[in-house]
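Students often ask why we bother encoding 3D structure as a string. The short answer is that it lets us treat folding as translation between two languages. Here is a chain of 478 residues written in the first language.
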Amino acid sequence: MNNNKKLVEAITSMDVDFAQWYTDIVKKAELIEYSSVKGAVILRPYGYALWENIQGYLDKKFKETGHENVYMPMLIPDSLLQKEKDHVEGFAPEVAWVTHGGSEPLTERLCIRPTSETLFCEHFANIVQSYNDLPKKYNQWCSVIRWEKTTRPFLRTSEFLWQEGHTIHETAEEAQEETIKMLNVYADMFRDFLAIPVVKGRKTDKEKFAGAEATYTIEALMHDGKALQSGTSHNFGKGFAEAFGIRYTGKDGKLSHVHQTSWGLSTRVIGAIIMVHGDDSGLILPPRVAPTQLMIIPVAQHKEGVLEKAEELREKLSGVCRVKVDASDKKPGWKFSEYEMKGVPLRLEVGPKDIENNQVVLVRRDTREKMIVSMDELEARIPALLNEIHDALYEKAVKRQEEMTTTVTTPEEMRDAADNKPGFIKAMWCNELACEEKIKEVYGLSSRCMPFEQEKVADTCICCGKETDTMVYWGKAY
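And here it is in the second language, the structure alphabet:
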């Protein structure tokens, strides 16, 4: 391929085919490559760097909230998985099994972890004796396998990276506090690090995690109006503790079961970044998560002093942002398109005339605004600009979410919204499974969550007409 071909020409418009637009971006921006394993992808350096930055942010928050990192085995004995009935039934269709060690059949088949609750439960049962051993607040960074029938990079793959937190506590109150605290850690990250607004709430019993007492979620709205479950936090109550015998001797000398939580967030959040902020030219990365925040492009770099000045600026600015220089022999126009497609928040152009005038050209990725800035002001101006870009991306996403959220009070309005208004739909629900399933069947909508911030948009259930106080966010989801 000609080195100076603009790769953005290969990106399908999101309004023409959103799914193809997404696939084009993950490939052309060099986030992933497809592998020879069905449903599994290779995370290329640029894609993995995004995950490293997310991991770095969250790991710091987890440790600040008193959690320790551990690592559990990848393989789970079948007998251990079977100990919690609801849990194993929930994951059974997605489990991959190891049946042989070398050429010899195993005496007991081993599951490749779809999640690690059972391993943590076995471990907790072995190490906890008294109230002095509580709480235990653990987190694991690992990969999991879920044998998906339909896959899409980041959003749903057979193998993906994530973190899973697992904690045990003396009281139900402590466990509930932990469950909500960690959900808020996720929500804060989406707002403060990824510039993505979310709806926080509780899942219905139909949608909760298999084996949980209650599941809480953050739901983000993508550019095409579909919802993405972006992070979940589960209160297990005593269910797993009773199944696995996780007991401790309390201050009163009596044996009691612990109260347990679990919470997780995966590489699917990279899909959220793409689909919330991207445009027809490619990625638009929020500055705080971007692997490179500023790309320096030397213009007429064959001329004396240009490359040296570009490198001097890189060294000068490396203390205030993540910065690189592209000194390759590709033309400046190709480089502009390349880093626009890769979503680099700021571009700095410097050539002979700029050097003569002690200035550079800065270009924002989100608005494409060009600014002439004195070299003397760059160390102050660039961090301020990066913050401005973050705030602008967040405000734009909030506005889109508000515009794509519809309140309905009648079945006719629900039908119209489901067919013609992509986005969140707010409607009342009677808390009955039959109505939730009927809404799915008739309108093709799933319950996303019962938001913490409840609104009484009507007096009765949108489906059966029964009086209710519960409002639900409904939508079509990835």
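Translate back mentally: Residues 378-403 form the longest helix (26 residues). Keep this in mind for the problem set.
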